[in-house]
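Field log, afternoon session.

UNIT: design team B
ACTIVITY: writing a sequence onto a fixed backbone
BACKBONE:
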C-alpha cells in the first residue's frame, strides 16, 4: 500500500484479541484510509481510497457480526463473524 499524499493520523485501540488495532485516517477530513490488525498481521483498506477500488474484490469478509442489519454480502466470498479460525492467535 502506498499513500499518494500526506501522512495519516493514527488512532490505536485494543481489539477483541487484546492486540492493537491501528486506525489510519485523514487528519483534514477524517476519511478512513485503513486499519492495521496486529492480531492477524494485515491491513484492511477502505475501498473508497483505492484508485481502482471498484475493480477489486475482497478475499474474505470479516467482523460481519458488526454489520448493520440491512448489509448484504456476496455469497461467493468467505464470510466470518469475527476473524477466521487460526487468525489472531499468538
Amino acid at each position: 500500500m502506498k499513500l499518494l499524499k500526506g501522512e495519516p493520523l493514527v488512532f490505536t485501540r485494543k481489539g477483541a484479541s487484546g492486540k492493537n488495532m491501528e486506525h489510519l485516517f485523514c487528519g483534514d477530513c477524517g476519511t478512513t484510509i485503513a486499519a492495521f490488525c496486529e492480531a492477524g498481521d494485515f491491513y484492511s483498506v477502505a475501498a473508497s481510497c483505492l484508485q481502482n477500488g471498484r475493480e477489486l474484490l475482497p478475499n474474505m469478509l470479516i467482523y460481519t457480526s458488526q454489520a448493520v442489519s440491512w448489509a448484504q454480502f456476496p455469497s461467493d466470498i468467505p464470510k466470518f463473524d469475527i476473524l477466521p479460525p487460526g487468525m489472531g492467535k499468538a
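LOG NOTE: The chain has no helices and four strands.
NEXT ACTIVITY: expression trials, pending approval
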